[in-house]
Amino acid sequence: MKPLVFSLRTKPDQRLDLSPLVPHLLAGKTAAEISGVALGTTRHAVTVGDVFRVKMGDPQQLRIEGSCDRLDLVGHAMRDGEIVVDGDVGARAGRLMSGGRLIIGGNAGPWAASGMTGGTLEITHSAGDRLGGPLAGEMAGMRGGVVIVRGDAGERVGDRMRRGTIVVEGRSGAHAGSRMLAGTLILRRAAGALPGYLMRRGTIVLVEGSNVMSPTFVDCGVHDLVAARLLADFVRPYSARAASIFHSPLRRLAGDMAVLGKGELFCPAK
Amino acid sequence: MRQLTSKGVRVDDTFAEAFGMRATALTITAADARWARQAAVTMTGFGTSVIGCGAETGIDRELTPKETPDGRPGVRVLLFAVSTSELQKQVQARVGQCVLTSPGSACYSGLAGEEQLKLGDSLRYFGDGWQVSKRLGDKHYWRVPVMDGEFVCEATTGLTKAAVGGGNLLIMGKSTATTLAAAEAAVKAINAVADVIMPFPGGIVRSGSKVGSKYKNVRASTNDAYCPTLRGAVATALDHDVGAVLEIVIDGLTADAVGNAMRAGIAAIVKLGPKRGAARIGAGNYGGKLGPHHFHLKDLLP
Questions:
Q1: Chain A residues with CB inside 8 Å of B71's CB?
Q2: Does B130 sit within 8 Å of A182, measured CB to CB?
Q3: Per-residue pLDDT for B2 more than 80?
Q4: Alpha helices, DSSP H only, in A27-100?
């Protein structure tokens, strides 16, 4: 069956809330019902029909074409199915996602994958700040699932992350993995200052290291660990380039000793 | 007893009576095949019979690096017990004492099951707070720091309630040497069958037992009807040309696996023939009233 396609007519004059456009909420809806779904975030009401040309198809396979950075909450609380976006998206893409597959064929704004509990989110270009992180007042950030960023990521990637895996193939901003509770964060290019800042538990892999390492991480030596093989096998289908780091022994740094100190940073041996 | 003959080997028209058991499988890996085997041999030691060992254990087969979760050589072991709680106790004790302690080892679930037994979930406490939980997709591992690095252990392993224990073959030959040759041929053939183990030494038991004893508190005693030295003194089950009896006991994850193993064993014994191997094949049962699984030898002939 062909996918259900939303083509953006023109860049909207207000930010849009795309959270209703997820497979489980569109299932069983007619074309008229879908066109009437409200997306506006201001006093001027905007519906799907106002901003998108809709080509009906399988609601388990959504396509958003001609997307721009004013589309917020793409794939919000998505449970199943697939959403493929052609273009950039705004803030909080994939927030609270629990299943399915979300592919952003462009850049994503801040808080992508925030509070995500399952599924897969792929961003083909760059992600904004606080990828997977919690909103103000929330105790934990990402709690499951897999996020792959093919480009760069902003500051505080994986902030307060509790579970799941984030792979950033490009560079990442300062304080990557800040306040991490657990989970796995793999940063393939140089990370910004102080990766693992105040992390309690969890694993951060710094393939190219960081220009400013935190002084509160302690060297535990170079090791060839079985766990690295398991990580490599898990990551390989998502990012063969990131998986290749695990082929040689890695230096383990324990920290952040300013807090609990049961997290770890893995760096190349040299 | 009515007998059939297959290529000169007499086959009793009887059946092996087997019982339902709880079982699990584990994948044990190490840096090389030798150390994976060593951990597996150690953890399956003293696991011949639930009567005295708590569990019946054995090696199912060796695994290539491509077949293991961590890409290292491995061994798949099976454990059988009479209850879920006893199996849990045995898994924890055997992996804790024999696999965790073995150099470079790691231990994973070797069976997908709807119900789970604790594996790393109980052994992680050895880490004294330094253990690390790692969830990768739907897998959950524990990393326990040990003196040669880390012991990686999957959190749980699958449990099956469809396992069958007590499939058996009684191999009767003219002498100890020919009977042993037939038993060895059968063990070799059964080793190639998936999902089964033969828990006794080298797969063979020479002290088959009957239920009960003349002594109080002794649950099982020698199967006098099959002891050649008592042939004249008891109601013997042996013919005049039988000088030795050996038994192969088979536990399998499914009844089909046990049936396949018995079929492979009988075929190997028949192929060896009565001169170099066994003159007669029988099977042990309790009249058919105790165990729900009956493996009739006539259905398993080559």
A1: 229, 233
A2: no
A3: no
A4: 31-35, 48-51
